[in-house]
Design a protein that fits this description.
There is one protein chain. It is globular and about 55 Å long. The longest helix has 34 residues, at 13-46. The chain has two domains: 11-174, no CATH class; 192-242, no CATH class. It has helices at 3-6, 13-46, 51-61, 64-75, 80-91, 93-105, 110-118, 122-131, 138-166, 179-191, 195-210, 219-234, 237-241. It is built from 13 helices and no strands.
Length: 256
């Protein structure tokens, strides 16, 4: 079977079922992502950014938090050094996600690793880490991941693009600002279950509040670094790599 055949539409029923199940599990968070996208798209449009650049950036970057931080700092007149540093720190969490998911991804073909990496979001990372132990078969697992990650990324992108094109379609009276912390709270409750993780969350939260008066929202940078530093000091080396669960091998070359 060639690579092209492996990406044909004739996907076995049991793998289509895994894709659908992954999408169903991610649906509640995806709805919040779509609503957040609408609000963020309207904010991008109001910032004066060219619509074509906003649309391309939304699809290619696939990182709402980075876009939000960039727009917020740019509209406040922050220096570009601060803007770039903030965006870099905000996006640095994906390096941690990648390291955390390395064991689950290592058995996937390269094309699958690249596709899932592009679709990776905060929600998808927590989703994949949570469900990985429940799906020991590598082929079924990657289709499950694809269903969840593609649904969230697709709805978030679609919501953002609609917001960019039509502007603020959600009334301010709805007070949807709570959706963002609510989504991240759902992620934290699912993934933080050990001492280093709990300490990282507590230290970062306390530091963010204590340094809230720092200019340009730089308290987020300080809080992130504090959480990473404390975790590094208290966590054993194996905590970053994840507990080994045994070697897995691909069933056969060219499997869907």
């Amino acid at each position: 079977m060639t690579d092209r055949d492996s990406f044909s539409l004739r996907v076995p029923r049991h793998l289509r079922h895994q894709f659908v199940q992954g999408a169903k599990q991610m649906l509640p968070l995806s709805v919040g992502g779509a609503v957040f996208g609408l609000a963020m798209g309207a904010l991008i449009a109001a910032s004066g950014m060219p619509l074509w650049a906003a649309g391309i950036g939304t699809v290619l970057i696939n990182a709402g938090a980075a876009q939000l931080a960039l727009i917020d700092l740019a509209t406040k007149g922050a220096p570009w050094v601060i803007i770039l540093a903030t965006v870099a720190v905000v996006q640095a969490r994906f390096a941690l996600y990648s390291a955390s998911l390395a064991h689950e991804y290592t058995v996937f073909p390269r094309r699958w690793r690249l596709a899932l990496a592009f679709l990776l979001t905060d929600q998808a990372a927590a989703f994949e880490k949570h469900f990985a132990p429940r799906i020991p078969d590598a082929v079924r697992r990657r289709w499950f991941f694809l269903g969840g990650a593609s649904l969230f990324a697709g709805l978030a992108m679609a919501g953002t693009l609609v917001g960019i094109l039509v502007g603020p379609v959600i009334p301010l009276s709805w007070q949807i600002g709570f959706i963002v912390p609510l989504m991240f709270l759902a992620i934290i409750l699912r993934t933080v279950s050990d001492r280093p993780g709990v300490m990282a969350v507590l230290v970062a939260a306390v530091t963010a509040v204590a340094t809230r008066d720092l200019p340009y929202g730089s308290n987020v940078i300080v809080a992130t670094l504090a959480g990473i530093l404390v975790t590094r000091l208290v966590a054993p080396a194996g905590w970053y790599r994840g507990a080994p669960t045994g070697e897995e091998t691909e069933p056969r070359e060219g499997a869907p």
